[in-house]
Amino acid sequence: MTPSTGRSIERWSPTLFLLAGALLVAHAAAWWLRLVTDASAPSGVFAAAGHLVGTVALAALYPALADRTPRLARAAVVSAAVPAAGWFAITTELIAETVGMSSPRGPPVPPAFYVAVLASTVAAYVLFTVAGRRARLGPRTLVLLLLAPAALLVARVGAAAVDAASDAAGFAIGAGLGLSLLALGFALRRVASTDRGPAARGTAG
Questions:
Q1: Does residue 204 fall inside a structural domain?
Q2: 152, 154, 158, 159 alpha-carbon torsion, rounded to 10°
Q3: In the chain, count of helices (H) and strands (E)?
Q4: 27, 78, 83, 97: which is deepest, by most CB within 10 A?
């Protein structure tokens, strides 16, 4: 990968995080509809697509990390590829079911597979948090924002494990995930614009 190609990929990361956040906010909105009406909005497809885009956005951070912590960066990008493949499979299945291309036979995704994808997603966010901290990706707040989705996913799994999952919990966690990814996208965009400023001034001088 050339430096210019790496920078091009890296520039997509904030936009992808913003898209992922928007999809998860839509997921939370569907949960809200369940709370206040009898509507059965297809929230699952928004959640799966949001997580898919989020893991791709993580992988797009690789060029920003590779120079300062190459081994950890490689481990992080591989860890993001695993859940990305899983979320792609889940999203495809849910879209097919939503548009009527396949008929549901029990859960659309085996629970064990779903839990494995969630666990690998948590691992990816944690690894990118560690890599971002070592590579000084940005302010501490930015690096901690990388950890927020992992913490919220653990809370979601924990709530389900103790049978405390509810529409209210689903809405709260979905909204938290969406807002954390939106905040991450805006924070990365701010860091990128700050980095471009001195570079542009240096070029002009």
A1: no
A2: 20
A3: 7, 0
A4: 27
Please report whether residue 92 resides in a domain. yes
Provide the number of structural domains found in the chain: 1
> Which domain, by its residues, includes 138?
3-199
The length of the chain is 205
Establish if 205 belongs to a structural domain: no
Report the distance separating Cα 44 and Cα 47, nearest Å. 5
User: Using alpha carbons only, how large is the chain's radius of gyration in Å?
Assistant: 18
How far is CA 46 from each of CA 31, 41, 109, rounded to the nearest angstrom?
11, 10, 15
The ranges of the chain with pLDDT < 70 are 1-10, 39, 41, 101-108, 160-167, 195-205
- The pair of three-digit structure tokens given for residue 168, joined into one six-digit string: 């209210």
Give the span between the Cα atoms of 183 and 143, in whole angstroms.
Answer: 11
